[in-house]
Inverse folding.
């Protein structure tokens, strides 16, 4: 996601919204990668571990960076003719992903799937623009 964000940074028309959205999207990619740290059990009798705290912090950072990035990138896409058609799709993906992000269990996989498909749509558009 961070590399995809960098490509968006380079490809979108230079504007405050495109720069801020791409930067937040890059940080979201780092936060998503940091979710690989092992989580602590929810119910435990032992103190939390450093990797469990990092996992929890990464989850919070993902929510604080990805969702604002999607809102802002939606506006950035609206002002760029090459990306205009992905503006509404970005916001609709956010409407699906945000509630699923807040829920535990199987609903989180809905969040991951929605974000994965959205990332793929961005990558396909970048590939089309390059040709």
């Amino acid at each position: 996601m961070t590399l995809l964000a960098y490509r968006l940074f380079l490809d979108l028309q230079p504007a405050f919204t495109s720069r801020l959205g791409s930067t937040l999207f890059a940080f979201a990619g780092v936060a998503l990668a940091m979710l690989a740290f092992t989580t602590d059990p929810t119910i435990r009798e032992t103190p939390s571990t450093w990797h469990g705290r990092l996992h929890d912090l990464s989850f919070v950072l993902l929510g604080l960076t990805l969702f604002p990035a999607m809102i802002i990138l939606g506006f950035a896409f609206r002002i760029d003719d090459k990306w205009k058609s992905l503006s509404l799709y970005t916001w609709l993906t956010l409407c699906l992903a945000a509630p699923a992000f807040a829920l535990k269990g199987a609903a989180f996989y809905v969040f991951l799937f929605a974000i994965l498909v959205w990332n793929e749509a961005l990558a396909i558009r970048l590939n089309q623009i390059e040709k």
